[in-house]
């Protein structure tokens, strides 16, 4: 209705509404955290505690690590449970999982934390071979059971996976590993959510499991802003939870501002 047909009081109300600043957009409320190989979701507790304190609804996926499709299905199952859009976060092998599962309609953005981010048809084992890590150059570091499940040799776990964790904690994690089926690392991806969803990244500057240069390659290819946490090990989500949580919260705020 044109302003000239409005009564004075209605006209004033309309003009004030136009002049009023737009309300600040709320951040994405839901955060879904996906762990990597050989560990479980308990390692996310320091990050989860910060996010929860800051008002986010945090869910964690416990992948069985029995096959790549099983791990993607476990992630989609948790995404189905969210009451709205979510930021999907993956660490290490969890990055491959969120790349495939991130096409889920409830995923509003992705955060990679010292993580793999293959393209369609690629797998992390092939890509890791092109930019070898310290792990890849350490003979005998990865052991395999007779039925094809892998684990990191317990006496090398603290040195390679978590050199900046307290020794007692790193030793416990070495002894509580979730064994991962070997072919989870060599299954080619059929989807690459980072091509269509907003992406952020965290590089662990002293990562011995994934070459930090490979992490940079992934994030640059995805046109993702990323931070480098100097001196951080592969356990960056445990040793630098405030920095990791800050990236996740930035993603939630940024995507929230663009979500109707």
Automatic annotation (TrEMBL):
The keyword Zinc-finger does not apply. Keywords: Hydrolase, Signal. SUPFAM superfamilies: alpha/beta-Hydrolases. It holds the Pfam family Abhydrolase_6. Residues 31-247 form the AB hydrolase-1 domain. Residues 1-24 form the signal peptide. One of its GO terms (molecular function) is hydrolase activity. Coiled coil: none annotated. This is Alpha/beta hydrolase.
